[in-house]
Amino acid sequence: EKYKMGLHKTREGALSTLKDILSKSNQIDEDLFDELEEIFIMADIGVDTVIDFIDKLKNEVKTKGITNPVDLQEMIMDEMFEIYLNGEIVNANLNLKKEGLSVVLFVGVNGVGKTTSIAKIAYQYKKMGKKVLLAAGDTFRAGAVAQLDVWANRVGVDIVVKPDGSDPSAVMYDAVKKAKAEGYDLLLCDTAGRLQNKVNLMNELAKMKRVIQKEIPDAPHETLLVIDATTGQNGMSQAKAFKEATDVSGVILTKLDGTSKGGIVLAIRHELGIPIKYIGLGEGVEDLEIFDIEQYLYGLFA
Ligand code: GDP
């Protein structure tokens, strides 16, 4: 239900006009391709990706001898699907251990929905019967620790905190010790989103990882970057910067229920090679879904 609602809202974005444009066009010509190009760029797909994309469409129209604009719809969907997969099997499930403790790091700048996303994932795994621990590693932003603490209480999971300004690695040290000793299944670690100083960010994340890896050598099992879908190209540059700072294994794309134009899904995957793992569809703890590219693409034309 929620997912459908989210997709419905997503449809109000720029890509939602695709179906209308195709159905009211009389022929496939340069004007139509220009119009499509504009829509794709407006939808945050990214200029480079769009140029590639339009070239492929033109080629296919020629080789298949397609003349009816409505027939472009399936071709566009197939092409978007190919762009997203990029020849791989993209698994949106988290790559966690079947047994024993799994560790997930969350990175992203302030305000994107990182805290809320951690709470949502904690809630989902708790519901599956997993023992979940949070580590309040954003000791930099005033109030971030307290905010995560509120969520931990609301969701009913445990949390390790230290005062604002503490060394985040010290939080990780305590959290990983506790998680191991008390048989937790999942440790979700918040981090500070200080992109302004990439060297500091890199060092801080590296130090946190070292501390965690001393106890659990193959951790973190996922590093999830949280991006606000409504910020468009800004989100893309954040993604590039975080990718340079650390190994990002997946993206949580938040606020897809808002004014997002949807195309950022393709841009993130195509330009950065990172899969979308979850989408955020609201402010509530249940408003998070595992990302499904097929459903997503169908949603755009529904
Ligand atoms: P953080 O600074 O990255 O930790 O961001 P927060 O988790 O505090 O979220 C910032 C704001 O975005 C809050 O008002 C959240 O309720 C809101 N938010 C988070 N995720 C979503 C989402 O998927 N949809 C909508 N509409 N709002 C969201």
Q: Can you tell me about this structure?
A:
It is a peripheral membrane protein. Keywords: Cell membrane, Cytoplasm, GTP-binding, Hydrolase, Membrane, Nucleotide-binding, Receptor. It is found in: Cell membrane; Cytoplasm. The protein has helices at 2-10, 17-24, 30-42, 47-64, 72-85, 114-127, 144-155, 168-181, 198-215, 233-245, 264-272, 293-301, and strands spanning 102-107, 132-135, 158-160, 186-190, 222-228, 250-254, 276-280, 288-290. The chain has 302 residues and is α/β, with parallel strands linked by helices. The longest helix has 18 residues, at 47-64. Guanosine-5'-diphosphate binds next to α6.
Chemical compounds bound to the protein: guanosine-5'-diphosphate
- Please give the share of residues in helix: 40-55%
Topology as a string of helices (H) and strands (E): HHHHHEHEHEHEHEHEHEEH
User: Structural class of the secondary structure composition?
Assistant: alpha/beta
Counting H and I runs of at least 4 residues, what is the number of helices? 12
What share of the residues does DSSP label as strand, in percent?
A: 5-15%
Largest sheet: 8 strands, mixed
Q: What overall geometry do the principal axes of the alpha carbons give? A: elongated
Mean pLDDT: 90
